[in-house]
Amino acid sequence: MNIREAPLWVRDTVPLRGYLKLCVSWALPLLHERISSGSSPILQAASQLKLVCEQSVNPVLAVLDREYGNACWVLALTQASIPADCLMRVRKNACLWSAPPAYSGRGRPRKHGQKMRLNDPTTWLQEDTSIEIDEHPDLGKVRVRQWLNLHFYRAAEHPINLILIERMKPMSNGQPFPPLWLAWVGERTLPLETVWFKYLRRFGVDHW
Prior knowledge:
18% helix, alpha+beta
């Protein structure tokens, strides 16, 4: 099986307005399994993703919804030794932490740095990278920001990159489009100009 990319997820019940129309491809699932009472969506997805990686000769990118944008999924990847890149949607009320400051030599070393609440811009750190796409053919003007080396509280030793996607043009009712928060974890580092757009492919496969 020659698999170039293998998106895996549980269906998201909240659509992303303004992004859904970009799905231009359709695909059948590689594996469709029921989740037993002794398992969970995260454990089942980790098992499936590991199987895909074992059979693929190309790098694997898993694109996942909000159920996986948390410490439990990051830890599951590590514990199962899954060599895949993952792009996960993160809940808008999630919190992440920066790396801790250098050890002062006294007391217990800190595991966490500054707390960043995604629903409170006053707590946001300075982004590491920011780009603007002036006129995307479907989205119009888009701003994409990225924070490097953050982590979830329960996965302090496993850094992620946090990505914020914002449509600058308001909706027809004058209200702004809701922001899209993503987390990237993996062995590869893709350019910010392309990594954010890969998440939109999830919708073309989600509605098979």
